[in-house]
């Protein structure tokens, strides 16, 4: 804190806001991923449940006309039992893997980091104007402690190296385009910000 000017403190706060922005992007990526998994599992449960209901009431002759691989009553019972087992496994997997908990935690992480970034920008744009070097240094230390705490809370949010680089690339592209939009709101976003679907898959 000693020896730092207001400008130095503002620069450090900007760096922390940039790091928090990347952390927020990681949380957003994780949230979308787990949201997709959760939605897919829910749709699977819905499909299997509908299949069980259909097989429970359908006339065996209809099954024959549909050219399904099972026709006898025993075969139908076996399929119903298997689908019921799949529903149980899918439902239980959410508890074991903590899919919903992880999804909600990352959603909350997006909100928390957004609030932190907003506080950093408020200090940069407003608070620093009324600070001397000492008060700016104290504010910087407070923001550092807050950032350190947020990192501890979200410390388990890790990614594979390649995935991290893709998320970082996306974040840097967004940041660059955002700054360009501040200068010229008429620029083409697609020209400067383009993350094709296969860039995420390969």
From TrEMBL:
The keyword Transmembrane applies. Keywords: Membrane, Transmembrane, Transmembrane helix. The chain crosses the membrane at residues 36-58, 78-97. It comes from the Archaea. The keyword Transmembrane applies. This is SMODS and SLOG-associating 2TM effector domain-containing protein. It comes from Methanoculleus chikugoensis.
